[in-house]
Write a structure and sequence with these properties.
This protein is mostly helical and 113 residues long. The chain has a domain of 59 residues. Helix content is 85%, strand content 0%. Helix 1 runs antiparallel to helix 2 and helix 2 runs antiparallel to helix 3. The longest helix has 35 residues. It is elongated.
Length: 113
């Protein structure tokens, strides 16, 4: 039962990773109109935040997939099973950091200005 759950989570992770890659490529393909220089810094920070979030989601998805594969291939070995669980915990932490990136950045902007 747990193996089936992790198998489904691995497939879900692969689907999320594919969606993130496709969304990122579509977002960067669209040309942006010319903007005044006062908004340029805000746009650069926004783009860097989006890039960092995309990379964090990609790395977290990789670790989730790695953890699922390790857990499924453990064959009852407690050491490998624990490594798989730890990789999956790291992936959850990565997803949390990726989701909190924008609120933390806006909090830092409010504190500075």
């Amino acid at each position: 039962m747990i193996r089936r759950l992790f198998h489904h989570l691995c497939l879900l992770g692969l689907a999320v990773f594919t969606a993130v890659v496709l969304a990122a490529s579509a977002a960067h393909a669209a040309p942006s109109p010319a903007q005044p220089s006062s908004q340029l810094l805000g746009n650069i920070i926004g783009n860097l935040t989006g890039l960092a979030r995309g990379l964090a989601f990609g790395v977290a998805t990789f670790f989730a997939t790695l953890g699922c594969v390790r857990y499924m291939m453990a064959n009852g070995d407690p050491m490998i099973t624990e490594k798989g669980k730890n990789a999956f915990k790291a992936a959850v932490l990565g997803y949390a950091l990726a989701l909190l990136a924008e609120p933390l950045l806006s909090l830092a902007k409010d504190l500075v200005s």
